[in-house]
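It is worth pausing here to work through a concrete case rather than discussing structure prediction in the abstract. The textbook approach is simple: state the sequence, then state the predicted structure, then interpret. We follow exactly that order.
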Amino acid sequence: MAPLFETKTTLTFDECVKMQKYRLRGSIFIRIPFIMLSILMIPYVLYYGLYLYALVFAAFVWFWTFGDSLMDKMRAKKMYNSNKSLHDLELTYYFYEDYVVQESELGRTEFKYSDLYKIGESKTNFYLRDSRVSAMIIVKENCSDELCRFLRKLKVK
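Step two, the predicted structure:
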């Protein structure tokens, strides 16, 4: 049986960083209460003169909230460097009606769409996630318009 669609992805460090950012993108909402708390602490700190504590707390909140980019790169680097055989690995994806096949020089894997944990989409990629921590990266630039529509339909199901 011939596949409906086919695309290729090269697994680079940049793609791993993008995936890490996508995977953790919702975590900023967890930080909002801490930002609010730091704002509410300002009058208390000014009244009691606890400037050093305020500075340390503000630095912590700022780094935790806006230091994501650095942390994403560090996590992605750790993930990418943990398996040298994945460096610049070219993956070919074959999309069928009920499943996708991922093929490379390392082997071949089939995933039923119904078994996927989640299908996500960012500005540059689709992520077919088979678990909370791993995903197949589909670069939109390498996809036909029909494949993008197909993946969006799968995402909605």
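Step three, interpretation. Helices lie at 13-23, 28-48, 51-66, 68-81, 145-156. The beta strands are 5-11, 89-95, 99-104, 107-112, 118-121, 125-129, 135-139.
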